[in-house]
Structures are given as C-alpha cells and as structure tokens.
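Re: Re: ligand-bound prediction request (bumping)

Still looking for help on this. To restate: I need the protein modeled with calcium ion bound, output as structure tokens. Inputs repeated here so nobody has to scroll up.
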Amino acid sequence: MKYANSGSKIGVILTIIILGLISALVVINNMNSEKANETITSKLPKIEGQPTLGKEDAPVNIVEFGDFKCPACKTWAESIFPQLVNDYVDTGKAKFSYINVLFHGEESKLASLAAESVLKNSPNEYWNFHKELFKEQPSRITPEKILEIGRKFANVDLERLETDIKQQTVIEELNNDLELVQELNVQQTPTILINDTIVNNPFDYGELKKLIPESVMN
Ligand code: CA
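Reply:
Sorry for the wait, this slipped through. Here it is.
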C-alpha cells in the first residue's frame, strides 16, 4: 500500500508538472502569434549576381536567405514558395532571389558551391537543381550525391560541376552571400524579405501577402 500511495503521489506531481508545461507552452505560443504581426524593417540586400526568378522589371523584390540543409527551408520551398511563384512571380508582380546561408556546415557549403556552379554554367537549370537539392533532404550531401543530382539534368556539365565543387572555383559567390548574411544579421533560415521588410513568420502566407504592396495587386 505504501508503494501504491507514493506511486499515486508521483502521479499527481507529474500531472501538475505536465499541466504547468502545457500552460507555459500556450503562453509562449500566444507570444509568438502576437509577434507575428510585427515586421522588422531592414535594408534591401543587393541581389546582383544572385539567382533570380521572374521578370527583371517586376515591381516587388522577394529575397530568401536559405540553407539547402535546413529542414524548415525544405518545408518552405515545398509549401509556400510554389504559392508565391504562382501568385506573384509568374504574374510579373514580383521577382524572387535566393541567397545561400551555410548554417549547417560542410554539407551546406557543398550544396551551395554546386548550386552556384550550375547558376554560372547552366543558368536555365538553376531552379530545378535548387529544387532537387531540397528534395534530397535528409540525405547526406557528398560530392558523389551532387554528381548524382547533376546527372538528372542533361544540360549540366558534370565535369565542370565536379571541378567547381572540388576546387571551390565559385567560392567568391559564397563569400559574397556571407557578407549579405552578416550585413542583414540573418540569424535563422529561411529568412524572407519582401522589399525591405523581413517577414516575421515566413510560413504565414497571409502575412507574406499583406507585405506585398497593394499598388501591384491589380
Ligand atoms: Ca549567391
């Protein structure tokens, strides 16, 4: 009986702890959703030399700071990005640029070197290659994996791709991206900017839409 008693006491204590944790989570969640209405004004990053999708003269600039190894970036790339492209890029209202972030170390670097190589040598394949890199998650990115992805594209020169990742011939592009990351003090990926405003919650499509100036909506 003694054991049963202490057992039920522990049960009560555990229940109290769990309830406490749940209410703390609810409070944190509420704080987050309040924060979702705020936006931080920032500088517009220089998109010269970056892969850019859409019409050059599109009135709105959307920029992603992303990491090919970041799971949230994969989710964003496969859920929100296609909607944005459909609603704003394909309609000529916005153009979309992507800047590499290397928060996940060597694998991020390798994927980004490969993407920059494809951008330089076969720019028409860039966005498909970009998509494939996200699709590969959570597989390990190795030079062999990069070539395996490259093989899916008839226009990608595999020898050049191999040389570019081995000799890091496009490292300047990565250094340039790093400068932009530091300039904007990017702390998390994906970080999405609509013109000069950082989107607080890039997964909230409604918030993204609200940041698109009304003047381009018609
Ligand atoms: Ca770049």
